[in-house]
Design a protein that fits this description.
InterPro entries: Cyt_trans-like, Rossmann-like_a/b/a_fold. It comes from Tribonema minus. It is a single chain. By secondary structure, the chain is α/β, with parallel strands linked by helices. It has 8 helices and 8 strands. Strand 4, helix 5 (129-141) and strand 5 form a beta-alpha-beta unit. Helix 5 (129-141) crosses helix 6.
Amino acid sequence: MGRMRHFVSDLYAQLWDSACLQDKRLLDVRVHLPGEGFKGGTMEEAALSPQVSIVMTERHEGDAQQSLQRINARRAACGLAAASLLSLRQVAEQAYDDACYYLEEDYGHEEPLTFNSVACGGTFDNLHSGHKKLLTAAASCCKLSGILTVGVTADAMLTSKKLSHLIDGSAARIAAVASFLDDIRPGLRHRVVVIDDPFGPPAYEPEFEAIVVSSETIKGAHKINSMRAERAFKPLKVAVTRRTEAASLCSSTLRNCIAAQQQSQQQHQ
């Protein structure tokens, strides 16, 4: 049971990340526990619930489709509408190409992947644990003989943020980032610069090899690679640190989603 609890905790975090990447933060996800109510606790038994509309699975495509066919045949016999399939494997394949990988899964390599020129970016206001996680991940991806470039969002780009008057100026934020990097990995060369667009140096300078992003900013990394392709630059390896979105899984986040959804519906009426 202890292992199951750990698995469920991690699974909900990963499902939240997947929902965020698909812009489906209000998706009602439920992990059913094994028990007598589901005649052995299989996914196919759980999927006979009238509330189910989507079945999420990590099975390979062929196995998942066969399972879905069996589920829908049984749902039809019960007078229920067919369910659709959301394959977590397929989501990963669609959202990330071969140039993208999760740092938390890098333990499979005998030697973790490192690069000569690495980039990351952000606002880095009031340097908190999320920032520190990203910067530490980026520093770990950079060879000691290489250089880490950190883009810090320009003040002019932050004026529309809520309580923007409380955000430190770029000079203070740059100093905080540089000091943190010096502390966690002495000897690593770094370049901390102001950026006045969402892309920064890796979109315009060919020498970069990798970019480190959190899970909610993967699309931005792909956009940078598109811009690099237009300039005939080599694509960046996209290193992702996972479950950053899970930290935002709270009632206020969902209330914001509901409010935005209601506003959008009103605008279309």
